[in-house]
Amino acid sequence: MIQLLFLVLFAEGTVALFLMLKIGPLRELVMKGLDQLKSSGKGPATVKTIACTMSVIFLSSVTSILKIQNKGVKLGTLTPMDQVLWRTHLLEASLLGYILFLVYVIDRLHEYLRKLIGLRSKVGASEQEVEKLQKENLRLKDKSSEEIRSLKEEISNLTENLKKLQLESQEKEKQVIAAEDRVVALQKQSEDLLLEYDRLLDQTLQGQTVNYRG
């Protein structure tokens, strides 16, 4: 019985050590084994049954230790047989206590490591998503820069065209003003010519009148 308890304790200590320290692929193998044990239909029930049996044996050993101690208190001393039984029960109770404690430690380590692996997976996925968003942001920035550059060039072209149109408009205004000045000059010249024509016509009519009288 004691040799079996030592063997179980050694096995549990080895499992706990592999869970706490990452030694090659051993942690992954232990995690997979515990996952299969917990996920299988009879695994958790079997573990609980063994744990309950060990707990009963542990309580029985503690009870035997207390009985032997009470017997020694009443008699004032312990017989050699009682001393051997007391030490045997004490060793069994100690081994069972350590075994039950390591079962709890292994269960908690497995849960924490599984949560840690899940968190690392989520963090890795989040990092990939962040990297993807950064690349998309950089692509949009490049695209925006190109569009802004294109818009600036278009605005520059429009500004140059507007300046050309303004210059053409100013030239046309100058031409219109010059044409208006020519029209005014022609009108004045026409009026002068009409006046001269009227004056010459009057002189001609007066000369004809004088000749007729003579």
TrEMBL record:
Compartment(s) of residence: Endoplasmic reticulum membrane
Statement: the UniProt record of this protein carries the keyword Cytoplasm: no
InterPro entries attached to this UniProt entry: BAP29/BAP31
Entry GO terms, CC: endoplasmic reticulum membrane
Coiled-coil boundaries: 116-203
Family annotation (Gene3D superfamilies): 1.20.5.110
Principal cellular location given in the protein's record: endoplasmic reticulum
Residue stretches spanning the membrane: 6-24, 45-66, 86-106
GO process terms (BP): endoplasmic reticulum to Golgi vesicle-mediated transport; intracellular protein transport; protein localization to endoplasmic reticulum exit site
Membrane topology label: Multi-pass membrane protein
PANTHER family: BCR-ASSOCIATED PROTEIN, BAP, ENDOPLASMIC RETICULUM TRANSMEMBRANE PROTEIN
Its biological purpose: May play a role in anterograde transport of membrane proteins from the endoplasmic reticulum to the Golgi.
Family: Belongs to the BCAP29/BCAP31 family.
Name under which the protein is recorded: Endoplasmic reticulum transmembrane protein
Natural source organism: Coptis chinensis
